[in-house]
Amino acid sequence: MNQLMRFTRVHGDSKVAPFVAILVILTALASLGNLLMPQDSIFYVSTYTITLLGKYLCYAMLALAVDVIWGYCGILSLGHGAFFALGGYGMGMYLMRQIGDRGVYGNPELPDFMVFLNWTELPWFWYGFDQFWFAMLMVLLIPGTLAFIFGWLAFRSRVTGVYLSIMTQALTYALLLAFFRNEMGFGGNNGLTDFKDILGFDLQSDNTRVALFATTAFLLGLTFIISHKILKSRMGKVIVAIRDGESRARFLGYRTERYKVWLFVYSAMIAGIAGALYVPQVGIINPGEFSPLNSIEIVIWVAVGGRGTLIGAIVGALLVNYAKTKFTAIMPDGWLFALGAMFVLVTLFLPQGLVGLFNKFKGNKPDNNAGSHALEPKATEDAKA
Amino acid sequence: MNALTDVREVMRRDRVWSFLQEDHKEVDVSHDVILYVEGLNLSFDGFKALNDLNLYVNDGELRCLIGANGAGKTTLMDVITGKTTPDSGSVYFGQTLNLLQHDEADIANLGIGRKFQKPTVFEAHSVFDNLELSLKQQKGVMPTLFARLSPSEIDRIDEVLAIIGLKEQRFMMAGALSHGQKQWLEIGMLLMAEPRLLLVDEPVAGMTAQETERTAELLTSLAGDHTVIVVEHDMEFVRSIARTVTVLHQGTVLAEGTMDQVQNNPDVIEVYLGEAP
């Protein structure tokens, strides 16, 4: 019995490998379709599509970050766009420094907007961002540190539920207002844009675009696997236990606030990476990314896909954003209504999201962590059999 | 003069500074008493929930706490487990451990397990996982991230599954268990941690007669190796398990003794049993 159990513990999660395989294959096909196929071939994938796919994958990674804390630990963050945007600004600052004297004003040291503001020297917080490694370190550290400070204060004071959600919303809104100011030194309203190259490669070339897309896919796969490993470990079980009965976990001797803080930091770092990958692909980062609306949209992606399942979050982000692309092309004004309707419908009829629907059709047992009570009788039968 | 006495007090040769004492992790029951609660006072917005409460519990004892609603039973448990800080008074676990200086997680790791009034288990986890999480183990973030279930831990889980009679349900989701089974699972979770002191809040609320009987057996079998404090409203149940009963009333101890002594105590008859003959 015990051996059987250990076997299922190690090999039972059959969904991860196929999912990563599909991701790798599709990425490879799309990349080759762009680079090797002639333009008139039916297998040709346009560079526009590649960039679009890369953008979707960044969103998927962001959804993954939100799902890790919302779906598994019950912390509903309505401010995760903030960590995404901070990661994006980190990358944006590196890309700005790479422009060098090719800017409109031709100043080798200062980005255009600083010359425009009559600044004479680089602010101290821009130092080091001409180094790629430093910028990438900051992409992890800045969101991570902010999440640590915020989480430490909030979770230690045992702020939970809707109050925490409101605070995260306020956090991202405060950052939005701060980054709008020119004095902040991040380009104010216009943000950072007009990027030329990354690590010496021209950002406009097909090869760079495909490489960025492939890197995004790779990192999405990697963060997916790492998140899965974390959540399947005993720590993951504690995290779900905190979601379902925080005081029980505390009286069992777990310092629940520490688990929450570290999970929040982990999640913020993934969001930061997603933001850093997003910026070179879309070519701009501005304070609009801090908008509370963006953060709420992420939550909807996760809800549509199915919270508490990592695949659900990724699938949800991809599908909703694909729908957004299509829908806004046909009826730009209607999108927000469609998004709202989708959220209401999913909440009412699909509490498990699309993944839950899929499992129902397949007659699968629900994922351990999905917390499905609707399927309880079934679980009982299985146990008896 | 005053300064001189202060200095003398400081220089006393038999003085032991608290910071020089080693940090005790083991409970010291050399005087047979495992829990000292002395002069406890606590008021919420003027309402005195605990009023100069004194309680001593011996090691290995099965003690029942009874009392009407609002008598301070659950508040007392909150104070012992670190959830609430009293206005004044002291709570010692054994001779050396001052529980008021520790938080919930610390107190749990020192060996005090608590079962809530409403059965609280991790519903999205299997019975087995519930017990795994309750193992006596390192409970920091990093140790749990890399924790592996060892064979001896699996044996320990099997042992507890046998004690609480949930062997058949080991892979069932805890949320799918019946009410009584959840209560037992929660007691099992406490046992996993090998506690010295178990605080059990209303273990038979909502149970069938049969389940109640089994719970009574379970709790009496636990006493001896563990110290058990049971809070319960069900008088039949208390009579069936209790050796010593403590009656709380308005945040203070009204009477203490065997069930018969307590029931014949005129004060108790007046304030508690008198209302529900």
TrEMBL record, chain A:
For molecular function, the Gene Ontology terms on record are: branched-chain amino acid transmembrane transporter activity
Q: Does the keyword Membrane apply?
A: yes
Subcellular location, record wording: Cell inner membrane
Its GO CC terms are: plasma membrane
The family database entries (InterPro entries) matched by this protein are listed as:
ABC_transp_permease, ABC_transptr_urea_perm_UrtC, LivM-like
Coiled coil where?
Answer: none
The membrane topology of this protein is: Multi-pass membrane protein
Predominant cellular place of this UniProt entry's protein? membrane
Record keywords, A-Z: Cell membrane, Membrane, Transmembrane, Transmembrane helix
Q: Where are the transmembrane segments?
A: 16-35, 42-62, 68-89, 133-155, 162-180, 210-227, 259-278, 298-323, 335-358
Q: Name one Pfam family in it.
A: BPD_transp_2
Know the name of this protein?
Answer: Putative ureashort-chain amide or branched-chain amino acid uptake ABC transporter permease protein
TrEMBL record, chain B:
- Tell whether tRNA-binding is among the UniProt keywords: no
Designated name of the protein: ABC transporter related
Is the keyword Thylakoid in the record? no
According to the lineage, what is the superkingdom? Bacteria
* Matches recorded under Pfam families: ABC_tran, BCA_ABC_TP_C
Q: Which residues form the signal peptide?
A: none
PROSITE patterns under this entry?
Answer: ABC_TRANSPORTER_2 (PS50893)
Please list the residue ranges annotated as the ABC transporter domain.
35-275
- Give the molecular function GO annotations: ATP binding; ATP hydrolysis activity
Output a single Gene Ontology CC term carried by this record.
plasma membrane
Q: Which SMART domains match?
A: AAA
Which PANTHER family does the entry mention?
CONSERVED COMPONENT OF ABC TRANSPORTER FOR NATURAL AMINO ACIDS-RELATED, HIGH-AFFINITY BRANCHED-CHAIN AMINO ACID TRANSPORT ATP-BINDING PROTEIN
CDD domains listed in its UniProt record: ABC_Mj1267_LivG_branched (cd03219)
Q: Which UniProt keywords apply?
A: ATP-binding, Nucleotide-binding, Transport
